[in-house]
Amino acid sequence: MNAKDDSIKLVEAISAGKVEIDGKCSKCTKSICCNSINQKIPTPRSKEDFDHLVWQVSHENINIFKDADGWFLHIKANCMHLLPGGVCGIYEPRPWVCREYSNDFCEYDESIADASEHFFAEPEQLHKYCRKRFKKWDKRFELYE
């Protein structure tokens, strides 16, 4: 991910009353699944599409990846309802997307960067990819000059 340390550290989970956490979640103190959003985006095809992705990945806490399910923005943003120890503070009325989430495969198993076909955390990584994909990538602005 970005330059920050996103490695998962294992500690004992803090008990949260009625909330039951399975074995995998109780060992994950970073709560990565609760502190990021993976937003599916249309498959980029043109230089303009990829140039827009360069702009997006130029922002803090934004990564882009492609896996078997398509292209995604990976937005790192802390959930305001997460309590110390990684327990959900609104477990009973939590949003539907949280209820449907399955941790069958999550970043506790393997990071998105490692599991993805393509992962871009910096603009230069995307430029390098685009130079291979488009022969005239570096000349894409000449049309406008």
Describe this structure in words.
- The protein is α+β, with helices and mostly antiparallel strands.
- It has one domain.
- Helices cover 25% and strands 15% of the residues.
- The chain contains five helices and four strands.
- A four-stranded antiparallel β-sheet has the order 1-3-2-4.
- Helix 2 runs antiparallel to helix 5.
- The chain is elongated.
- The two termini are 35 Å apart.
- The relative contact order is 0.21.
- About 10% of the residues have low confidence.
What's the helical proportion of residues? 10-25%
* Molecular shape: elongated
Order of helices and strands: HEHEEHHEH
Overall domain count:
1
Q: Characterize the biggest β-sheet.
A: 4 strands, antiparallel
Task: Tell me how many strands there are.
Answer: 4
Structural class: alpha+beta
Q: Evaluate the radius of gyration.
A: 18 Å
Can you count the helices?
5
Main sheet: which strands, in order across?
Answer: 1-3-2-4
Residue runs with pLDDT of under 50 for 5 or more positions: 7-20
Distance between the termini: 35 Å
Query: What value does the average pLDDT take?
Result: 84
Strand percentage lies at: 15-25%
